[in-house]
Amino acid sequence: MREIVVFGGSAHPALTAEICAFLAVPQQPVQLERFANDCLEVQLQANCRERDVFVIQPLVNPVQEHLVELLLMADAARGASAARVTAVIPHYAYGRSDKKDKPRISIGARLVADLLVTAGVDRVLTLTLHSPQVHGFFSVPVDHLHALRELSAHFRDRDLSRAVVVAPDLGYAKSAADFARRLGVPVAAGAKERISDTEVRITAIIGEVAGRDVIVIDDEISRGTTVFELLDRLREQGARSVAVACTHGLFADNALDKLTAADVTEVVCTNSAPVPADYPKLHVLSVAPALAEAISRIHNGESVSSLFDH
Ligand code: R5P
After folding, report:
1. Which of these, 150, 236, 242, 309, has the minimum number of CB atoms within 10 Å of its CB?
2. Which of 212, 216, 223, 282 is nearest to 243 (CA)?
3. 0.90 cut: is pTM over it?
4. Is 192 a catalytic residue?
């Protein structure tokens, strides 16, 4: 296969630029046109013929716009005779819609996976899916990275003698345990029940947090409902301090303002989604080196999973 060609959608140009810088390849331009009837059209501005094409687009707000743009980019690349089209989706927002837990509901994670393949995507590179099984919704190869290496490196040089890692729910406990192992500290988890998109209940914390420096870890922070509920429980149970970390800092509904104003020592996330620069208490870790390394390995037919083994 011939050289790598990288296009970025409009969702996160800064991340695309950073990935291209690590790969030492130019970011190829994409022309996006919106017609009077509100339909979009994409024109890729570089030759794709027999090239190894990567299209980078996290599914962040406005998700539907960015999704259609990604589908159109994949379609354009396939139509331009790309040898292979890899969708690089650092945040797969529809991953949260992964099961039929109410009657007559859609399962967006699977539908969007099917749409991507129909559009011409041959493989997917993504980061911290909401649940690992979403990987299996795709009928094409998926390289599923996580950011625990970056997140644990951030905390490793702290005084961790009284630290404990806390997952807000049991669904994330396995990843939290991995994160805790990397830091050499114990792990605890909340018993969480989601009532609605804006309401969660954490009835108990399984594990010892009294007098501890807590590091909360989650896959994403959206409205912050989960973290605020957990902060209440941690305070009640006598935690000494709380830092909050996640992969996807989505920060809807002014969650970042509220979170940094709360009694937390710091908020740590990655740049899988665009986040404001220079925000008090906020530390943004770059996943561009990991994504660039994975892209390079995919192109060269090398192992990607070995890159992320502990
Ligand atoms: C849910 O299961 C996820 O792991 C996150 O806890 C959730 O998506 C966070 O959303 P929010 O910040 O709106 O509570």
Report:
1. 309
2. 216
3. yes
4. yes
